[in-house]
Amino acid sequence: MEFLSKIFGFDPKTMVLKKEVMGGITTFLTMAYILAVNPSILGDAGMDTGAVFTATVVSAVVATLVMALYARLPFALAPGMGLNAFFAYTIVLTMGYTWQFALTAVFIEGIIFIILTLTSLRQKIVDCMPLLLRRSISPGIGLFIAFIGLKNAGIVTNSDATFVTLGNLHDPAVLLACFGILLSAVLLVRNVTGALLIGILATTIVGIPLGVTHCDSVVSAPPSMAPVFCQFEWGSILSIDMVVCVLTFLFIDMFDTIGTLIGVSNRAGMVDEEGNIPRLKDAFMADAIGTTVGAVLGTSTVTTYVESASGVNVGGRSGLTAFTVALCFALSLFLAPLFLAIPGQATAPALVLVGVMMMHDIRKVHFNEYISAIPCFICIAFMPLTYSISDGILMGLISWVLIHALSGKYKELNWGMVILAILFVLKYAFL
Q1: What is the C-alpha to C-alpha distance for residues 184 and 253, in angstroms, rounded to an integer?
Q2: Helix, strand, or coil here: 407?
Q3: Which of 74, 72, 76, 81 is nearest to 64 (CA)?
Q4: Between the N and C ends of the chain, which has fewer C-beta atoms within 10 Å?
Q5: Residue 35, H or E segment
Q6: Is 47 strand, coil or helix?
Q7: What is the 3-state secondary structure (H, E, C) of 184-205?
Q8: Do 420 and 125 contact (CB within 8 A), yes or no?
Q9: What is the DSSP letter of 162?
Q10: Rounded CA gap, 196 and 343, in Å?
Q11: Which DSSP state fits 90?
C-alpha cells in the first residue's frame, strides 16, 4: 500500500483498491468509442485510419500515464471530440488546408500549453473565475454528458422541426439502451458495487441476440503509425490562418479541460471550500504533454475526458484509476475488435446516470440571487445546448461580467475576470 501511495497518491484510509480499478475500467468503457470515432473523423480529412487508430491509443496511454504518475489524479485523456471535428471539417475540408497543416497547429498549441502551465497562467485563469460560476460547471457537465449518452443511444435524435426529439422506441437498439438505463439505475439504488460497469457489460451481452452488439473477432495486430507520425508542415507557420487555428484550438481545449477538471473534481469531493483543486497545475501539464505528444504521433488535440466522471462515481479517487485506464487502452491495441464491439447503447446508461449524480452541486448555486443565478444558469444551459463545455463557461463568464457591470455591481468584479470576458468577446467576434 505504501508503494501505491507513493506512486499513485492512493490513500488506504479513504480509498478502496477495488473501486480504483473498477473506476478505471468503467471510465475506459464509457470513452472507448473514441477508438472508432476518431479514426473515422480524421479519415474524412484524408488521414490513414489504421495509423490514426494506433496514434489515438498510444497518445491516450501516454497522456493518461502522465496524469496517473505525475498528477496522481483519476482523470483519463484521449483525443477530444469537437476538437477532432474542427481539425477535419473546418481546417481541412472547409479552409482547404492539408491535415499536415492541422497537425502542425495542434503541435504549436501543445507547446504553448506547456509554457502556459509552467508559468501557472492556466491556474490563474481558474482563480479569476467566480466561485459560484465554478460550482455551476459540474451540473452543466452533468446535463451535457447525459445528453451525449441519450444521443449515442438513439433515445434522443435530431428533428428538422424541433432540432431534437424522442427517438424510435420500436428500434431494438433504443429499447436496449432503455433496458441498460433501468438496470443500471436499479443496481445503483440497491448500492451494488460496480453498478455502472455491470450495466455496461450486461447491456452489451443482451445486445448480441438483438443484433446490436457485433464482434467478429477478438485479437488483431495494431496498424503502423508511419503514415501520420511526425507529419508536420512548417511552410505556413506564420500565416494568419495558422494563428487563427492555433488560437481556436487553445480556447476550446483550455476551457473544456478547465470545466472537466472542476466539474469532475467537485463530484469527487476533491475541492475545498475556496474552490481549490489539488495538483491542478500537474493535471494541466498532463493535458499539455498529451496534446504535444499526440500531434507528434499523428492525432488531433488530446484532452481530459468528461467521461472520467463515470469512474469517479464508481469510487476512483487516485492516479491508480487513471493507470487502469491507460492499461485498458494499451490492451485495446491488440483487442480492438472486442472493445469496439461495445455499442453506444451499452455505455449510454453510465453517461446518463453520471449526469444525474453531477447535478448534486446545483444546490450550491444561489438561484434566489439573480445577479449570480442568471450567469450560472447560462453556464449550465449552454453546455448541452451548444454541445460544448467551453462555450458554456465562456458565455457564463461574459454574462457574469456584463450583468454585474450594468447593474452597478462592478466593484464585485476583479480585473482578471474583466480581461477574460473581453478576450472571450473578441474570440467570438474574430475567430
Answers
A1: 32
A2: coil
A3: 76
A4: N
A5: helix 34-43
A6: coil
A7: HHHHHHCCCCCHHHHHHHHHHH
A8: yes
A9: T
A10: 15
A11: I
Contact 74, 253 (CB under 8 A): no
Are 124 and 258 in contact by the 8 Å Cβ rule? The answer is no
The Cα-based distances of 431 to 87, 392, 425 in angstroms read 14, 17, 10
- Contact call for residues 397 and 262 (beta carbons, < 8 A): no
171 Cβ contact partners less than 8 Å away, ≥ 6 residues apart: 154
Comparing C-alpha atoms, which of 31, 75, 79, 26 is closest to residue 53? 79
| Cα pseudo-dihedral 326, 329, 335, 336, rounded to 10 | 180
Residue 267: closest CA among 313, 225, 301, 233: 313
C-alpha cell at 100: 499536415
State the Cα torsion 379-128-253-422 to the nearest 10°. 80
Identify whether the C-beta of residue 142 lies closer than 8 Å to the C-beta of residue 148: no
Residues in the chain: 431
pLDDT for 239-296, tens place per residue? 888 988 998 888 888 888 888 888 888 877 787 766 678 888 999 999 999 999 999 9
Q: What's the CA gap between 19 and 22, in Å, rounded? A: 5
Contact 235, 59 (CB under 8 A): no
Closest alpha carbon to 250 in 426, 5, 70, 83: 83
Q: Are strands 77-79 and 302-304 parallel, antiparallel or unpaired?
A: antiparallel
Secondary structure E strands in 263-340: 302-304
Neighbours of 214 (CB within 10 A): 11
3-state SS of 220-256 is CCCCCCCCCCCCCCCCCCCCHHHHHHHHHHHHHHHHH
Burial tier of 338 (Cβ tally within 10 Å: 0-12, 13-18, 19+):
middle
The predicted-structure confidence for 99-156, as pLDDT tens digits, reads as follows: 999 999 999 999 999 999 999 888 888 888 888 898 888 888 889 888 988 998 999 9
Record the cell numbers describing residue 340, joined without a space: 469496439
DSSP 157: E
Asked if residue 275 lies in contact with residue 230, where contact means CB atoms within 8 angstroms, the answer is: no
Phi, psi (rounded to 5 degrees) for 420:
-60, -45
Of residues 384, 30, 15, the one with CA closest to residue 184: 30
Q: And the C-alpha cell for 174?
A: 433504443
Mean pLDDT of 80-95: 86
CB 347 within 8 A of CB 33: yes
Tell the residue number behind the cell numbers 477574460, with chain if given. Answer: 420
Global pTM value: 0.82
CA distance 322 to 311: 9
